Amino acid sequence: MRRHFLRGILAVILAALAVAAGPWGPLGGAARAAGDKEYLAIRHMARGHTCETCHKEDPPKTKTSHVACMGCHGDAKKMAERTKNSNPNPHAYAPDMVCTKCHYGHK
User: Fold this and answer.
1) Which of 19, 46, 61, 68 is a good FRET partner for 13, with 20 to 30 A between their CA atoms?
2) What is the per-residue burial (b if ≥16 Cβ within 10 Å, else e) of 1-26?
3) Contact criterion met (CB below 8 Å) for 90 and 15
4) For 36-66, how does the pLDDT look when each residue is reduced to its tens digit (9 = 90+)?
């Protein structure tokens, strides 16, 4: 029981640190979300998408919104299901989180 509790606390702390280290978090680092090996723009372009897919205009004049992410990937509940084998699964702990707080397309 105690071990399970400690694992849960550790998972919450790690998720909070991941958010804090994101590009807009208080630590302001250049860390990507866990599992991201490259910027999302590179991955999306490799799959045939353009700037307009996420930004809704080309060339983009503003940052994209998490609403654009959900248009293709679904809401946090759906993402929690898709990433259910991740340990910890940050989508399960932060159902109201904005995608771009952890995941970002480019510098």
Assistant:
1) 68
2) eeeeeeeeeebeeebeebbebbbebe
3) yes
4) 667 888 889 999 999 999 998 888 898 888 8
Q: Which amino acid is at 36?
A: D
Query: Is a pLDDT exceeding 60 seen at residue 105?
Result: yes
Which of 68, 42, 43 is closest to 57 using CA atoms? 68
CB 23 within 8 A of CB 104: yes
Q: How far apart are CA 6 and CA 38, in angstroms?
A: 31
Class of domain 2-101: mainly alpha
The whole-angstrom separation of Cα 82 and Cα 67 is 18
pLDDT digits (tens, 9 = 90+) for 81-100: 998 998 888 888 877 778 88
Per-residue pLDDT of 63-73, as tens digits, reads: 888 889 989 99
Instruction: Enter the tokens of residue 51.
Output: 């700037």
